[in-house]
Every structure is written in C-alpha cells, then in structure tokens.
C-alpha cells in the first residue's frame, strides 16, 4: 500500500507520564508495517493531554526515530491562532516535514477561519494538511470553503476529511475543481492547485 500515513500513538506510562522511550519502537513498528510518513499529535494521538513542552518532546522523538526513513507531520491545532503559529514554527525547527491543522473549536465564521489558516501557512514554508473534523471542533467546513482555501493558500497540500458523509464532500470538491489534488503529499512536494 503506497502512502499510508497513520495517526501515531503517543505512549504513556501507567502513572500517566509521557513514555518517550517507547517512541523508537513504535516508529519501527509503523515503518515495518508500510507507513510512508507519520502524523503525530492527532486527536487520537492524545495531543489534548500534553503540555506544549511534552508536545515538542513527542515531535522531536518521532523525528529523531524516523530519521530519513519517514517524514513526520506535526499536528499543531490550537484554539488561538498565535498558539498554532508558535507550534508550527517549533515543529518546523524540530524537523517536521509538514503540518496538520484543524479549525479552532467553535469558530464557524469563514473570514476568521481563513485568517487563522492563512496566518499559520505564512508562519512556515511547510506544506500542511487541513483536518476537517467537525465532531471534535464543532466546525463544519463546506466544500466551497475548502476549495477557496486551496486556491488562496498554495502550501495547502492535502485535506483529511472526517465529516460524514465523506464521499459526497470529496465529490463536491472535485466537481468544483476537478484538477485540484487534495490528497497529495507525494515526495513531500506541495501539489499544484
């Protein structure tokens, strides 16, 4: 299977403390089972349970463990734009090759959302994945909005659509812009949108 990019686990000890020592073994496991890249600190990766210092440790450990074998995508979502911008810059400095960003919780104003994503995109030169996950964020991104973002932010290279029904949203995006490649992180180059 080409381009399998899992949301990786953040390991913890029984007492709830971060288990950095297990990250190299997890990285090997993902690589041996076909992962071509790793997404760290996703919603399922327990990012909400970590301080920013712990988040940085997780990114650093996965980048170190992956070496040149697999690029690491750092999820930098935050309720405040400045926090997400700072996380984006730190992730790039730690060696992440791309970012994943969900909308800030409860922000449904398209202008505010566009500003949020544009400011994050301008803060680094990394490609990024838009995480469309309304269950956790409470934000429903329309197909029109996603297409508009892709047209205005060239570093938007992929969309992780988790809004059901996903197939109809993907079809709507492709009807509006059939040439738009929203599922492309091949060779970690930004797709031409």
From TrEMBL:
GO terms for cellular component: cytosol. Pfam families: DHDPS. The keyword Repressor does not apply. SMART domains: DHDPS (SM01130). Signal peptide: none annotated. GO terms for molecular function: 4-hydroxy-tetrahydrodipicolinate synthase activity. InterPro entries: Aldolase_TIM, DapA-like. It comes from the Bacteria. Coiled coil: none annotated. Gene3D superfamilies: Aldolase class I. Keywords: Lyase. Belongs to the DapA family. This is Dihydrodipicolinate synthase family protein. It comes from Sulfobacillus harzensis.
């Amino acid at each position: 299977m080409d381009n399998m990019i899992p949301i990786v686990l953040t390991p913890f000890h029984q007492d709830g403390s971060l288990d950095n020592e297990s990250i190299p073994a997890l990285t090997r496991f993902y690589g041996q089972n076909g992962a071509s890249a790793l997404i760290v600190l996703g919603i399922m990766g327990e990012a909400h349970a970590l301080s920013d210092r712990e988040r940085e440790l997780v990114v650093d450990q996965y980048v170190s463990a992956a070496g040149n074998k697999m690029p690491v995508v750092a999820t930098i979502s935050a309720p405040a734009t400045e926090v997400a911008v700072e996380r984006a810059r730190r992730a790039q400095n730690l060696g992440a090759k791309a970012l994943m960003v969900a909308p800030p919780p409860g922000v449904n104003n398209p202008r505010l959302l566009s500003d949020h994503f544009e400011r994050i995109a301008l803060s680094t030169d990394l490609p990024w994945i838009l995480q469309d996950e309304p269950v956790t964020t409470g934000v429903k991104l329309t197909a029109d909005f996603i297409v508009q973002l892709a047209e205005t932010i060239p570093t938007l290279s992929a969309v992780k659509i988790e809004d059901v029904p996903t197939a109809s949203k993907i079809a709507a995006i492709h009807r509006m812009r059939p040439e738009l490649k929203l599922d492309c992180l091949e060779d970690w180059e930004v797709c031409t949108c």
